[in-house]
Amino acid sequence: MPVSPSRMISNTPMKTTARITALLLLVPLMTILAHHANAVIRTVIGTVTKVSDGDTVQVTTPEQTKLKVRLYGIDAAEMPGTGTQRYAPDARKALEGKIKGRQVKLDIIDVDKYRRLVSIVWLDGRNINLEMIQEGHAEAFIEYLKPPYREQFLEAEREAREARLGIWALPDYERPRDYRKRLKTGDRE
Q1: Which residues participate in catalysis according to the annotation?
Q2: Which residues lie across from 127 on neighbouring strands?
Q3: How far apart are CA 96 and CA 120, in angstroms?
Q4: Which of 26, 116, 137, 146 has the greatest number of beta carbons closer than 10 A?
């Protein structure tokens, strides 16, 4: 004779305690997982063969696979294709000077809607994404920043702003995000 569902669930003090304990253990685990939402999916080594702008590069792996890479957590002035934003050539030149032709390590965090590998780019232990913000060549992309990089990137931007470096020295600086939005709506002022 089958057991009815009401008889399978018992509210004995022992089972209630076990459920509460399980829930209490799950909360810290869920917090840890949420905190590490930007965990590295994969690490890849390759050579930077092209710099499209201040936040997008092409990396060629030792197997000759070409990867389009978007630097995580930064947003640089827009280059041709969407219109050239003031300071875009400078940001691109700065990124080229740092990594073009160099072997880098990519910590891939995500894949964006354009199928680019959203990554932290490392050169000789240096976080190139962070350097671009520190030197005022790009801003922290606050809309997408998460721990463990969020606070560090925002602090770097604050310091670059205070020092009026790069984009922060421009009297009429417009965020790349706002510039793209304005172009999309057709307001080209």
Answers
A1: 70, 78, 116
A2: 122
A3: 16
A4: 137
What does the pLDDT look like over 61-107, one tens digit per residue? Answer: 999 999 999 999 999 999 866 567 889 999 999 999 999 999 999 99
Task: Write down the mean pLDDT value for the chain.
Answer: 85
- Those residues whose C-beta lies under 8 Å from the C-beta of residue 14, and which sit 6 or more positions away, are none
The dotted CATH code for 42-185 is: 2.40.50.90
Whether the full predicted model's pTM is greater than 0.85, yes or no, is no
